[in-house]
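Make up an example, fold above all:
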Amino acid sequence: MEAVGTILEREGEALEVLLFKLVEINLLIEAGEARFLPRATREVERARTRARELDLLRAATVADGTATLRHLAASAPGPWPAILRDHHDVLSRLVSEIEVVAHLNARLAREGLEQLARQPVPAAVGAGAPVAGRPIRNAELDRLARGAALDAVLGTAARLRMPDLIEFLR
C-alpha cells in the first residue's frame, strides 16, 4: 500500500502543476498576451505528459487493474483506508478543476478565434499602433500568430482527457 500511496501523492502533485499551467493560460488569454501562449501550452503538454506517466505507473503498481481507489480503500489494512480516501478526495477535486479550467480556456480560445475572423485583415505592413504595449511590426503576422496561439490552446484542451484516472476514481 505504501507504494500506491507514494504514487498517488506524486500524481496529485503532477495534477496540481497541470492545473496551475491551465490557470496560467487562462490569465494570458484574458490579458491578451497571446505571444506567451505557445510557451504556456508547451508547459501544459509537459505537465500532462508527467501526469500520464504517473497514471501508468499507478496502474502498473495496483495489482488488480479493475480496482478503483474506493475499492482499494475499502480493503486496505490499518490506517490506509483513511489515507486512500484523502487521496481520492484530492485527486477528484483536481480532476474536476482541471476540466473546468480547460473548458473555460477552450471557450475563450474559440471566442478569440471568432473575433479574429470578424476583424478586417490589416492593410498596412509597417509599424502600427501598439498592441498590449508593444509596436506591431507586421499586423498580419501578429494576427496569424495570435490565431495559431489560440489554436494551440484548443488543441491542448482537447488532449487533457484522463479516462484511466477518472475510472480509477469512480
Summary: The CA atoms of residues 109 and 150 lie 5 Å apart.
